[in-house]
Design brief:
- The strands form two sheets. Strands 6-7-8-3-9-10 form a six-stranded mixed β-sheet. A four-stranded antiparallel β-sheet has the order 2-1-4-5.
- It is 63% helix and 10% strand.
- It has 21 helices and ten strands.
- A hairpin with a 6-residue loop joins strand 1 and strand 2.
- By secondary structure, the chain is of the alpha/beta class.
- The chain folds into three domains: 2-319, ABC transporter transmembrane region fold; 325-411 and 495-504 and 523-575, 3-Layer(aba) Sandwich (Rossmann fold); 420-490, Rossmann fold.
- Helix 2 packs antiparallel against helix 3 and helix 2 runs parallel beside helix 5 (112-154).
Length: 580
């Protein structure tokens, strides 16, 4: 109930439409009850008293009631569906925005496929709860109240017998609902797994084909699909128990009413018209009761999805965690690390351990070391993708924790090995994140990134769609677009994370020229495995186990008999490799 009440809070902005829909629902309920009421004059006036004028009145009333009910039913259904779809659209947008604001660590723990399942599948189930369920809950409840009023008005003693079975139906409905909700939550987890496998394999389809694993991945998908199928059938098995249970319980009430009501007619206590009008109302009353039991099943399934959605919305996002209140002014780019430490898990090994470092404005700092030595983690602490556990990072003497995240990240540009391009035009990809970027600035950035020539050769130039993940471009072309994007951002601090490691030599030379333009006048951190690309750096930092173990220029580090010299000799084959 707590979850459903929280969900219904989203209806507040639409109370006017809901009010009108509720008024329409009242009329639909009253007109439905009118059908049962009409049975009495039909039987008593036409078939027993045989009044000719009733043959003219009753058919006209039936048509009028039907037309009025249809009109009110349409208005009610449309308005409630509008409100329901509007609410779900708002929730889906809010959920997406919230997921975008969650820390990087959350996204690393939860696959893209599972998050996609929350936004699409879970919210889709909520849509049923908000629109269909509200409509049925409102309509069936009002109809049940109206018909109950009719039966009590017609014959209160028979009405008591008819409704005595309702408490008997309560317990199985609750038990079935609880079971269904548990199964449905497990089902949403399974469809999340299914979506995750789908997203992974479609994104990595080239790797799948390169290793000939199509059948293996099909089998893996089939296994997840079968698991979801079994869950769906288990939910179906439970939910399909409701109609026969309600039918059986309802038949007990009907049987009791027929026995006692028939006795009253034979005894002359009531007329056949009154009895059959009562019976019509009772039979019509059990229909909304069955409908409400079905609504309960739908609600339980929807609440399992609602629980997962609100669970995500309750995750504390970066903006809420951000203690920084000041806006970072335009910076020169002086950066200082003061005994900074960080670990990905509490109590786990430190990825960065007590690093102290001062970087001057405009300096080019290269970070080298074996995989897992902490290079990428260290630079990710600058834009606060992760928060340092200990120590302080300062930019121009201002602690990064004191400034708001948007203003901090606005002054940090990043070009990584894995270039992210969107299924949009070249122009919009270059201008990504830069509002109101002029065509002149976009052109200048593309030219400085050595991208203008290949863009001009594309079918529609800067208006050419790139396709999913820039699939129509080579690796070097994608990198140059990423560099053009960074040039347009014009951030004073730059992070280059393996920006050329996956390129061939010809593409790398072109990208290196573009990077040279990008690095001018900026404080730059370069992470590279190819030592040939960082020999001209102001300083080279060698990291091992989260610590800076060597520091200096290329020539100085070669004179040391340390990690850098060993890495250099391995890359340039100056000594044979020895198995350790």
């Amino acid at each position: 109930m707590r979850l459903y009440l929280r969900l219904l809070q989203y209806l507040r902005p639409h109370w006017v439409r809901l009010l009108i829909a509720s008024i329409c629902a009242v009329f639909v309920a009253l007109l439905t009850a009118a059908y049962a009421w009409l049975v009495r004059p039909v039987l008593d006036g036409v078939f027993i008293r045989k009044e000719p004028r009733m043959l003219l009145i009753i058919p006209a009333v039936i048509v009028a009631v039907s037309l009025a009910k249809g009109l009110f039913q349409y208005l009610e259904g449309y308005l409630i569906r509008y409100v329901g779809n509007r609410v779900i659209t708002d929730i889906r947008s809010k959920l997406y925005r919230h997921i975008m604001l969650l820390p990087v660590g959350y996204h690393e723990k939860n696959s893209a496929g599972r998050l996609m399942s929350r936004i699409i599948n879970d919210v889709g189930l909520m849509q049923t709860a908000v629109s269909t369920v509200i409509k049925d809950l409102l309509q069936q409840s009002l109809t049940l109240i109206s018909l109950t009023a009719v039966v009590f008005y017609q014959n209160w003693s028979l009405a008591i017998i008819a409704v005595m079975v309702l408490p008997v139906a309560y317990y199985p409905l609750i038990r079935i609902g609880q079971r269904l909700r548990k199964i449905s939550r497990a089902g949403q987890e399974k469809i999340g797994d299914l979506t995750s496998v789908l997203q992974e394999t479609l994104a990595g389809v080239r790797t799948v084909k390169a290793f000939g694993r199509e059948e293996f991945e099909s089998g893996r998908f089939m296994e997840k699909n079968q698991n979801y199928f079994r869950n769906v059938m288990k939910a179906t098995q439970v939910s399909e128990m409701t109609p026969p249970i309600m039918e059986t319980i309802g038949s007990l009430g009907v049987a009791a009413v027929v026995a006692y009501g028939g006795y009253q007619v034979i005894s002359g206590v009531t007329t056949p018209g009154t009895f059959f009008s009562f019976m019509a109302a009772v039979l019509m009353m059990y229909n909304p009761i069955r409908g409400l039991s079905g609504v309960n099943n739908v609600i339980q399934q929807a609440l399992a999805a609602t629980d997962r959605v609100f669970e995500t919305l309750d995750e504390v996002n970066e903006r809420e965690l951000d203690a920084g209140r000041m806006t970072l002014p335009p910076v020169k780019g002086e950066i200082e690390f003061r005994e900074v430490s960080f670990s990905y898990r509490e109590g786990g090994n430190q990825a960065v351990s007590e690093v102290s470092l001062s970087v001057k404005s405009g300096e080019v700092i290269a970070l080298v070391g074996s995989s897992g030595s902490g290079k990428t983690t260290l630079v990710n602490l600058i834009p606060r993708f992760y928060e340092a556990d200990k120590g302080t990072i300062l930019i121009d003497g201002i602690s990064v924790r004191e400034v708001a995240l948007p203003s901090l990240r606005a002054q940090v540009g990043i070009v990584s090995q894995e270039v992210v391009l969107f299924d949009d035009t070249v122009r919009r990809n270059i201008a990504y994140g830069i509002e109101n970027a002029t065509e002149e600035r976009i052109l200048e950035a593309a030219q400085a990134a050595y991208a203008h020539r290949f863009i001009s050769k594309m079918p529609r130039g800067y208006e050419t769609p790139l396709g999913s993940a820039g699939c129509k471009l080579s690796g070097g072309e994608r990198q140059r677009l990423a560099i053009a994007r960074a040039l347009l951002k014009d951030a004073p601090i730059l992070i280059l994370d393996e920006a050329t490691s996956s390129l061939d030599l010809e593409s790398e030379q072109m990208v290196q020229r573009a990077l040279a333009n990008l690095m001018k006048g900026r404080t730059t951190f370069v992470i590279a495995h190819r030592l040939s690309t960082i020999q001209s750096a102001s300083r080279i930092l060698v990291m091992d186990s989260g610590r800076i173990v060597e520091e200096g220029r290329h020539e100085d580090l070669l004179r040391l008999d340390g990690i850098y010299r060993r890495l250099y000799q391995i890359q340039f084959h100056q000594e044979p490799l020895v198995n350790e």
